[in-house]
Amino acid sequence: MAKPILNVQRQSIPTVSDAYSNLLGIKDDSHFINISLSQLDEIDNQPFPINEDKVAQIAESINNVGVLEPLIVVPNGERYNILSGRHRFRACKLLDKQDIPCYVKNVSDDIARYIILATNTDRNNEYKPSVYARAYAEQKELMKKLGKKTVSSIAEKNGMNSKQIYRYIRLTYLVDDVMEWVDNEKIAFLTGVELSYLTDEQQSVVLNFMLDKSISEQDLTLE
Residue 102: which of 118, 80, 134 has the closest Cα? Predict the structure, then answer.
C-alpha cells in the first residue's frame, strides 16, 4: 500500500522583527545583513540603563554559541542606529568581534521609538518600577498616535493584564522623592499607585510626615 502523501508547508520561525511589524500593522521591508560594529551607534535618548553584568553574561554566551538574536537597526546616513540589542552590541565589542547580524528596518521615527521601548519592556523584572512606568506611558502615547490599540496591546505583548499596565503608568504621577522610595522598595508598588492619586503637595506632605515620625509603610493608612 502506498504511503499517504502529507501536504505540509514549510513554516518560517517568527522573529522579533516580525513581531513588531505585525503588532503595528506595518509592512516589514527589513533585510538581514552582517554589519561592522564600527558602523553602529547607540541612540542617546535611551530610557533604559545598561547592565554591565548582563553584558558580561551575554559575551560569555556569544563566545560559546554566537549571536542567536540579531540586532534591530535603522539607517542613519552611511551608519546605523541601534533600536534593539545594545547589550549584544557591547558584548560583541567586549569580544573584539568585527561584525554582528542585524535586521535593517526602514520605519518612521515614531515606530523606531516604539521598538526601542517595547523590546526593552518585555525583559521582565530587569529595571526599576520608574523605568517601566515611563516606558509604558510613552508606549501608550505612541500607540495612540499611530492609531493602534493602546494599553491592551502593551499588556498582551508583556504577558500582563491592562490593570497592571495602568498601575505602572500611574507611577508617573508620583513626585520624584516618592518615586525613588518605590524604586528602592521603601514603599511597596501598590502603595505608590495609591499615593499617585494625591496631589504633588499632598504626596510631599505624606512623605515628610513619614520621615519626621519614622513611620513605616505598614503604619500608613490612605483614605
Answer: 80
